[in-house]
Every structure is written in structure tokens, then in C-alpha cells.
Design brief:
The chain is of the alpha/beta class. It has a single domain, classed as Alpha-Beta Complex (Spore Coat Polysaccharide Biosynthesis Protein SpsA, Chain A), CATH 3.90.550. The protein is 22% helix and 27% strand. The strands form 3 sheets. Strands 1, 2, 3, 6, 8, 11, 12 and 13 form an 8-stranded mixed β-sheet that branches.
Length: 266
């Protein structure tokens, strides 16, 4: 099984409401289009918008909202060490998009780990994603087919990047691991091995962390298509022509199928 953890900001805070719905729908579609259906998504949010696919039974929306203003986030007081722990929560004021995403990532990991424990799932992959990006249609199948004795961590430093307003697509190479990375976990009673908060750390250091911890890892390409120029990205990306280190390529039928793309232009 592949458990995907992600986050979604307060709906009212998105500057482009129509594009927000388009990109979230595209993210969900990229999961529903997976060639292997053995996945679950845990996505922490303030409120879950009504978009096609959001009611899929494999998607667990976890609200961290404290009030209708969405100016506070409910987070665990203490990071739990064991899956069976009762979690005590507290409200923290909204600070910025990055802080909000980090807090929600922590909540998603806790929710996912405890769900696996309650359902007596002994091992699984956990995959982190941003909710305005697209997952290649074969990733769940790829992870589930790996021999976990040989590969227990997967990361990527090369991806596609889509400008949803111009329709252009490009190849982007990074010097570090991007947000989409996966780790294989095994349950020992009410503990997960390795550290089950790996996905709460800086994604750019994931590839060096697994090497330092001697976790057998594999680097792969094109797991992810990053959405840019939408007005909703956590990273505030510009149009593709202003991105650095990108190689614009033709849009093809294979790419459309790979990411389940539909026209996302406003």
C-alpha cells in the first residue's frame, strides 16, 4: 500500500479561486488515474472544497480549523512517539503559508500513521506531495512493486513543470530532492520504523538523510509534474518562461496520459 500525505490551505485564502479548484481537481485526478488503486490520501486542511473526486473513499480529509476565520491551526502539542498515543491538540495562530503547510504535514503524518496502526497494516510506503501538483500515473504501481529489502526510499531530482495558463510543459532538474519522495515503513507493535516523521523534515535534505541513515534508496525521474503560474502554489512560482534551469518541451499524448491532464486554462 502507498499512503500519500498532503496539505491544503484555507479555501478563502487562495487568490485565484477558479484556478485553485482546477489545480486541486487535477491533483486528485492524478491519484484516481493511478494504474494501481492500492493507495490512500491523508490531506490536512481548514476546509475541504467541493471539487470533482474529493469524495473518493480513499481520500481522508482532516480538518485542523479552530474557527470560521481560519486564522488558527489545530496541531499536536507534542509529537507522538507511539502510534497508540492519545494526541492532545492546541491552536496556533496562522503565520505564513510555509508554516501552515509544515503544521498540516505533521498532522497528516500523525493521522496516516495512526490509521495504519488501527487497521493493523504492518508495512506501507508513505509518499509526500503538494496538493497543487500532479503524480505520474505509474508511481503507486512502481512503489508497490519494489523489493523492500533492496529499496526502502525513493526520491527524485528531475520532474516536469506545467504552466497551466500558457499550456507549456518543461523538464526541470534540481540539485536536491523535490517534494515528492517516499519511504517504506514497517510496524513493530505501536512503533513505525524508521523515524515516522521523516516527511516532516525539509524535503530538500531527504536524499542526503536516507544516505546518512544508510537506508537503501533509489533515485527515479519524472514522478511529479509541478504546477506553476497558478496563483495558488505554496512556492509562489511565476510563469514558466521566468523559471530558471528549465527546458521547455512539446506537450505530447504520453505526457497528457501520464499526469491525467485536462485543459487548466482560466
Amino acid at each position: 500500500m502507498v499512503i500519500i500525505v498532503s496539505t491544503f490551505g484555507a479555501t478563502k485564502n487562495y487568490p485565484e479561486q477558479q484556478m485553485m479548484r482546477h489545480t486541486l481537481e487535477a491533483f486528485i485526478r492524478s491519484l484516481i488515474n493511478q494504474t494501481d488503486e492500492d493507495w490512500r490520501l491523508f490531506i490536512s486542511c481548514h476546509d475541504a472544497p467541493d471539487v470533482p473526486g474529493a469524495d473518493d473513499s480513499r481520500i481522508i480529509w482532516s480538518s485542523v480549523r479552530e474557527n470560521d476565520l481560519c486564522d488558527e491551526t489545530r496541531i499536536p502539542k507534542i509529537i507522538p512517539g507511539r502510534l497508540s498515543e492519545d494526541i492532545e491538540y492546541e491552536a496556533q495562530p496562522y503565520e505564513c503559508k510555509i508554516t501552515d503547510m509544515s503544521r498540516k504535514t505533521l498532522n497528516s503524518v500523525v493521522e496516516a500513521g495512526q490509521w495504519a496502526f488501527r487497521n493493523k497494516i504492518d508495512n506501507f510506503w508513505m509518499l509526500r506531495m503538494d496538493s497543487d501538483d500532479l503524480l505520474a500515473c505509474n508511481v503507486v504501481e512502481m512503489l508497490n512493486e519494489f523489493d523492500a529489502k533492496a529499496v526502502r526510499a525513493v526520491y527524485s531530482r528531475i520532474c516536469h513543470m506545467l504552466d497551466v495558463k500558457s499550456g507549456e510543459i518543461a523538464i526541470h532538474r534540481y540539485p536536491y530532492s523535490i517534494t515528492c519522495n517516499a519511504l517504506f515503513y514497517e510496524r513493530e507493535n505501536d512503533l513505525l520504523r524508521p523515524d515516522w516523521f521523516y516527511h516532516c523534515h525539509d524535503h530538500t535534505t531527504f536524499w542526503t538523510s536516507v544516505a546518512k541513515d544508510r537506508i537503501p534508496a533509489k533515485e527515479v525521474d519524472y514522478m511529479l509534474c509541478i504546477v506553476t503560474n497558478s496563483g495558488n502554489s505554496i512556492s509562489g512560482r511565476p510563469e514558466l518562461s521566468k523559471e530558471k534551469n528549465v527546458q521547455i518541451i512539446p506537450m505530447t499524448e504520453d505526457l497528457l496520459k501520464r499526469y491525467g491532464l485536462l485543459c487548466l486554462k482560466t
